[in-house]
Structure formats: C-alpha cells, structure tokens
Design goal:
alpha/beta, 16 helices, globular, binds iron/sulfur cluster, TIM Barrel, three-stranded parallel sheet, 363 residues
Length: 363
Amino acid sequence: MKHIKELLEKAIGGEFLDINEGRDIYLNTPDALLFHSAHLLRNRLHPSREVGWIIDRNVNITNICFSFCSFCNFCRKPGDEDAYITSIDEYRTKIRELYTLGGKQLLLQGGMHPKLGLDFYTKLFAQLKQEFPDLRLHALGPPEIVHLSVMEKISFTEVLIALRESGMDSLPGAGAEILVESIRNEISPAKCSAEDWLEVMRAAHLLNFPTSATMMYGHVESLSDRIEHLIRIREVQDQKPEGHFGFLNFIPWPFMDEGTILKDRDGVKASADNRSYLRLIAISRLMLPNIEHIQASWLTVGKETGQICLHSGANDFGSIMIEENVVSAAGAKTSMDTEGIQQAIREAGFEPYQRNQIFERIS
Ligand code: SF4
C-alpha cells in the first residue's frame, strides 16, 4: 500500500505515471481512495466548485459508411432503405431549433461515405457558415480526415486547412475507441490506424484547432490497452505547441452492445458497469494531468453515475445533446434538458456554468 500511496501522490502532483504504475494503481487502489485522489487532482487543476455544461446538437451528415466497425449499428450501405445524406433543409431546421434553445454549436458526425470527397464537406460547411455566421462547427474526426486525405491524395494538414477555410471550427476526437493497433484490427479494421489517428491530432494541434480526446471501452480491450490509450493521448498533448488548444477535454464512454455485430456475431457483451466507469474517470484524471477537462458522459451512464463522476475526477458534464443517433442506436436512452442538467450539477454539490466548445463561459 505504501507503494500505491506514493504513486497516487506522484499523480496528484501532476507527474506522469507509466503503464505499469497506471496498472498498479488501477488494480490495487480501493474505490474510495482512487476517487478521492482523482478529486484532489481535479481540485488542484480547478480550485472552484464549478462544473461546465454545453448546449449542442449532433447532426449526422450521413449514415452511409464503408467501415462497418463491429461495435456500430448505425452505419448503412448505399442503397439501403434507411440510408440517408442529411439535406440542407434538414440542417436549417435543426440549426433553428438549436438557436431557439440557446445553443450555437453543431457536432457534425457521421459515416465515412465512400463517394463524398473534400469538396462535399467544404461546400457544406461554407454554406452553413454563410447562412448562420455565428454557428460553431465541431465536425468530423480523425478517421474522416484520414479517409479524405487518401481519397484526395493530399496530406492530413492540407485536408484540415481546406476544412478550416470553409468554416470548420474544431475537431472532435471521434473514432478513437482504443488507440492500440491490435484492438482496432479486431473491432474496426477498415478504420484509420491508431498511429494515423494520433498523427491527425498532431497536425490539428500544430494548426491550433481545438480538439478533444475520447475512449470507448468495455469490449475486447484489456486494462493495459486502456492505460496505453491514455498514455498515447498524453504524449500527443505533450507535443502540442505552447499556447495552442490541443486536447481541451477527455471523454470516455462505455461500449453499448445492442444490435451490434460485436455482440450478435462475435458474442462480445458490453462489460462496463457504473463502477468501472467511475474508476475509468478517476484513472483518466490521474493519468492525464496535462488535459484540463475530464468530461462525464452522463448520456451513456445516466445522471446518478454522472454526478458521482464529479467527485471522482470529472469537472465537466458535457451536453444536453439534442440528438445523438450513434449512441442511442446502440442502447443509450438518457436525456436531460437545460434546467435538468444544471439541477443535476447542483444536486451533486457543484455550481453549473454554461460554456462553449473552447470552454469559454457563456453564463
Ligand atoms: S463507428 Fe463510425 S466509422 Fe465505424 S461503422 Fe459506425 S459510422 Fe462508420
């Protein structure tokens, strides 16, 4: 236990733990001490009792995707009855609804359509920005950037510059899952490699795009894979130029198995429970002292577990998320309105503040 306490003190002090040290504290620290230690580091990084939240809206550009990741039940083939590409009129309606609720950020996600090239995205973003100049576009993710780079035969940086010039404001850390090649080969072999995912983020950080990092866990990965994932993200963050945004937040969420190939064909059931989520939040806070915000994904784990996350290392409650088709398609059915999310933060003993995507205070 003396060894564990020393490691926890090291982490609370902001030092980097290596993979063996991360494993050691995860395996050998009782819940209360692990959560408390993560909370101490949270308090050191954010001395106030404030917790951020945001209004944004997820719109899926298309559900057509060539990747067919085995954990996804959202993607469709071209020609499927329920395959779609969102029309400009649908964007207009959804953006007006978002504005009515007081939000300004659109999270644009979707499948990797085999035929939609860079021109499609730059035209779409430019049109949305022309019609809604104050809209913030938090769009795509490293797998799409890699896909467009291959399609157009240009570098990741050139893709990112073209997207930024057309109106994209920030790059979500989507499609990270577990950043270990053997795991990606198993669950998403058609998607970009872990190294490419990280390389896109390095390029985005050099260009000073605000970005986020994510993890989807609780499927075929081991504890070592999860810790390695955290360390690889931490290393990229450590390489960002001084003063650049880098990864603003880290958001883990559990694999949801409903209707997925991973469960139906491979027999892999979702293994994460609420306790494992809390421990993951805590170990993430302790392993990632150079990422400012840890976000509790109450959308997937529910309000109560989300609230305990705020005492286990998390300092952000994320979005009311008006639409989230990929997660809800696989079994997450949680929802909360603007009053509800603030109430939930207060009930947990914190003070809510509404933020934008770069963590500026709105109210
Ligand atoms: S997770 Fe994303 S990339 Fe993978 S199949 Fe689904 S939509 Fe395509």
